[in-house]
Design brief:
Blueprint (H helix, E strand, L loop, with lengths): L1 H13 L7 E12 L4 E12 L4 E15 L3 E5 L2 E29 L2 E14 L5 E14 L2 E6 L6 E6 L5 E15 L2 E10 L11 E2 L2 E2 L9 E13 L2
Antiparallel strand pairs: 1-2, 1-14, 2-3, 3-5, 4-5, 5-6, 5-7, 6-10, 7-8, 7-9, 10-11, 11-14, 12-13
Length: 235
């Protein structure tokens, strides 16, 4: 219900019959922080600038995400097995945002603005494949110290689990500082939070009786984005 209300409010604002001031194109590269090895969203959005303070963004994104667990070992007599979990996939998104901004002055000849932007993220696909690699070793003891010798590579085992696919809607908010760097070009940096869970379909699942929950990044993430904005003014 809350998501429907937020979506309705953003769509209502996006379709208001303001006399728009101009248009723009925003390209962002981000870094997600949630315990994952790598989450780097790449966003490309078109923008309608309604006036000096309010704009609406809509565009496409690609969330490159993956993780690698710390390896762990089990031993049985003179043999040992090292286990590793890993996956990596890029998931597409459609996002809609409403940005409010206010000028705060000039610095070294550049106009500065503070902004805040709530966002909705729609991910039409969520399926991902996680791989469990089992590496086999023999154990010998030399001078009281264990020596692990890798077995033949063809004896190693790689098992995969592919999750189901679900379309999901998430929300987030970010705020930051933008500066006019050239005619019609702005550079901004922002910090925010989104409840996106790119690993949701793996939670509660297991591979060969090994539960994945203890190895997955946490749900939600903090986001840092760097954005280049092109502005085209109608007046």
């Amino acid at each position: 219900m809350k998501r429907s209300l937020v979506l309705g409010a953003l769509l209502w604002v996006a379709t208001l019959s303001f006399g728009q001031k101009g248009f723009g194109l925003d390209g962002s590269l981000g870094m997600g922080i949630n315990g994952s090895e790598m989450i780097n969203p790449l966003l490309l959005e078109g923008r309608v600038q309604w006036n000096d303070f309010v704009s609406t963004n809509i565009g496409l994104g690609l969330w490159n995400s993956g993780y690698k667990s710390a390896p762990w070992t089990t031993e049985a007599g003179a043999t040992a097995t090292i286990y590793k979990l890993a996956d990596n996939v890029a998931l597409p998104s459609l996002q809609l945002g409403l940005k409010g901004q206010v000028p705060i002055g000039r610095f070294l000849g550049h106009d500065l603005k503070l902004f805040a932007e709530p966002k909705l993220y729609f991910l039409p696909f969520s399926a991902r494949t996680t791989y469990l690699t089992e590496l086999y070793y023999s154990i010998s003891t030399v001078g009281g110290e264990k020596i692990y010798t890798p077995g033949p590579s063809e004896d190693n085992v790689k098992t995969s689990y592919k999750s189901d696919n679900h379309a999901r809607l998430y929300y987030g908010i970010q705020g930051g500082l933008s500066a006019n760097i050239l005619d019609n070009f702005d550079l901004s940096i922002s910090y925010g939070y989104t409840n996106i869970d790119l690993f949701k379909d793996l939670r509660g699942k297991s591979i060969k009786s090994i539960g994945l929950n203890d190895y997955l990044p946490v749900p939600g993430m903090q986001l840092i984005n760097i954005t280049i904005q092109y502005n085209y003014n109608l007046n």
